[in-house]
Amino acid sequence: MKLFISTALAAALAVTLPGCKEQPAGGNAAATGAEAASLEALNGTWTFDLASAKFTGKPDEYLLKDGSYSCSTCIPPLTVPADGAFHPVADRPYYDSMSVKVVDARTVETRRRKGDKEVSSLLAEVSEDGNTLTFSFKDMTTPGQTIEGKSTAKRVGPAPAGAHAISGQWQADRIGEYSEAARDVTFAIKGDTVTSTGQGQTYTATIGGPAVPLQGDTGGTTVKVERDGNALKETYTRGGKVVGVATLTPNADGRTVSYSSTDPRDGSGSSFTLNKKS
Q1: How far is it, in rounded angstroms, from Cα 152 to Cα 101?
Q2: What is the pLDDT of residue 144?
């Protein structure tokens, strides 16, 4: 499942731990009964515990100055006029144009479209002391699914002289709000077949088998699933590149799962606890 895959704190979090061991050929057939049972412990519906979120990796860096907005840490980096009009942007799987509007000295609104459809909006507000950046976002990337929420980042690098207050380096800090239904992910594992549904997206894949399309994803993402000890490992690929790796490890209490993710393109990562819902 992806989390915040297209909102500007790009935002954050679409994936996981690349340090996991690769499963050797034939590893699924040789899996122990304990390993198989531990994966089936993922069956059911789980919800992300936002308070447990932790983030790693380099800070995000923005610059808004002299009528131009740039994000040097976006993948790939981008620069657009900050005039409130929509401008084309290249190499973005979920949008092809965006607008940046300066609302006031501490607030900026960003909107994104794919074709003539708006797919996300983001209001970034800097605190009066200049040290906290709050993102209020709405994401409509997945057809029929709207995700809303808020997240914050801490300033770790100053804004250049003459630049807007959102400029500088920011480290992801906390998720304050997130649409409740979009926090849920469901797994159904039977034998070596895994079906997972979350945020309007679904896949059914064979453990150790080929990558399969992520249904409902408009960016053309595929996912491959493997067993990594007693954990399930998901590898997400888009445009021939790995864009995220996630591991989900059932805990002994039977009520929680440890989730960790990273984007190997820049080393950014996040971790959460998932709580059993049903």
Answers
A1: 20
A2: 87
pLDDT at 2 over 60: no
Both tokens assigned to 150: 């808020």
Separation CA 262–CA 3 (nearest Å): 11
- Per-residue pLDDT tens over the stretch 4-21: 333 323 333 332 222 222
Q: Starting at the edge strand that comes first in sequence, how are the strands of the sheet with 44-56 ordered?
A: 201-206, 193-198, 184-190, 44-56, 268-276, 256-263, 241-250, 231-238, 222-228, 212-213
- Decide: 171 and 154 in contact? Cβ < 8 Å: yes
Q: What is the pLDDT of residues 143-186, one digit of tens each?
A: 888 999 999 999 999 999 999 999 999 999 999 899 988 999 99
The dihedral through the CA atoms of 188, 189, 194, 199 has a sign that is: positive
